[in-house]
Amino acid sequence: MDYHKLVRDCLKAKPEAQRQLYSHFAETMLGVCYRYTKSLADAEDVLQEGFVKVYKNLHQYKFDGELGAWIRKIMVNTALNFLKLNRRYHEEMYFPGQPPLHVVAENYPMVNMEAKELANLIRQLPAGYQAIFNLHAIEGYSHVEIGEMLGISDGTSRSQYARARALLINWIKKISEEPQKESYAGK
Amino acid sequence: MPVNEFEKQVQQKMDELRMVPSEPVWVNIESQIRKKKERRRLIIWFFMLFLFISGGLWWFLGNNNRKLHVAENNVIGNQKNEKPVSKQNKEITTVPVTKRPENLSPKNQRHGTLIIGKAINKGPDKLKNKETQIKNKEVLARVIQKPKKDLAEKHPAADQENKMIPDKVIEKKADISTIATNETANVLSVIESSKTDSINSGEKKSIEKETTGINQEADKEKLSTENKTRQHENKKWEKAITAQIGWSNYNYGLFNGEKSFDRLSSVQNSGSVLFLSPGPGFYMPQEITKGASFAVGVELKRLLGNRIRVSTGLQYHYYSTYTKRGAAVEKDSTISYGADAIDISKYYKNGNQSSYTNRFHIIEIPVAFEYRLFRDIPLSISAGASYGHLFKTNALTFNRVSNIYYYNRRDYVSNYLNIFSSIQYTWLKKGKIKMQSGPVFLYNCLELQKENYFGIPHLFSLGLKNSISF
């Protein structure tokens, strides 16, 4: 797909181009939004708001990077704003004083599950953990950057990430063990 | 397994995640995009309307000034036949007006003049040119019927005041309405004959130049930087140094329309000095033209929401106007000003030998609201009001009776209330430093002088405002 032409046509406010841009990225971006929220409806709200921002700020895209990455960044920022502004998420975004926890090397289970299944596990994390896990493990932001984005210290980000990670590994382990037990019992 | 192996696996899995959004999502997105487009169109229309109103206002102001100047020029032109000023004003205190311009003071209008202790009687001037006067009356009767009535209504005191003059002083009591009629007729005919005068279009062109030349492409690059710092700006007061340069002039009625010539002075008794100002004949001042204007100041700005910014500050504003004057005379004299008699040690004769700059030094406290018109173009309009205090001026006051210019600080009010509007374009944005430029129009709502027979002017200025924010 010729992204240059697509962007130029969108800037000219051509409806077909706008629709095409949406169709091309909507599914991937809904996946991104889905990871940050607790329901599909919320994810769609974020997607909608994010795309409006995309069209509004498309003139700022200078073709210096992938268009998909640029849109994804907007979606992530929109999702974070949504979490901050939405009361339901906002309460879980605060991190009460917990002892620091660091990531330790251990045997991790192989993630042998569907993408949506894994996403649903991530979504079961408390909103704060969920956001930090998404930002660090999937988006690749450093803890300093996450601290700035969420208004917390990088130490808090590290600690919360370690907890989120531990929880997630635990759940994955449990899930991956369950079918084995069943099959063993079946034998 | 390395520490980040788990993250890699999760990342890979999540990259595969795709979900189909429901149809209403696109419908909502589309409607929001269209709405924004319509809003933008509305803003453009609003901007066009603003320009149209500003242009109209400018035309209106320019027209008013032109009419005034034309009227003055013509009357002044009629004064060529009169006797030299120096002869008439030998003693301002004793004989301020002994002879009137011929065109303005018909021979049949015998009228008392200013005296101290005694009155001056011109003698029984008989109507020698009756035919001319009758013709003049017939032609002008239709035109001046209304002003005549207005004058009688507005100045009932004038007739009464005439009665106060002793019979010995004035042989025949002048019919005040006839005098007023002739006076108004003179002025009207002067205005009528001035229609062919050309308009100074240079002023209008300067506005057009200032509002053009917007480079949209360069702004887009700056906007990305602007967005990054917007959140930071929201929380802080932005400091700015402003400088403004342009020109200023008098205006005689943004709200009152044409200046009025039908104001008649009254007889005033001030101690032993009896003043009787003339009805029909009076001297006209020299034309007043625009002068340089500039302002420097500091401002504090703060964002209110995404597009509206409030600003306040302190600035020194210099206004000036040009006029012509005659020779300076250093002499202790007494002059009538309103109900008072004021002492002056120096005055200027009416004439066009040299130019004189009326200077006004004003300290102003402006409060303005700035609205950014577009998200992607750093163009904003602002409007506001400012309180001003005149702390120094050398502006001259014209005395139509004595036909002189003199300095009288008391004639000029100290407090000003200005309204202003400007268009600002951000042409440089580097980090916290931002530079804006654009045209600014300012109008002083309060009257500049306390007394002025020829209409009390308002100051206004038009210029280019530049500001550097940090």
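The first strand of chain B starts at residue 115 and ends at 116.
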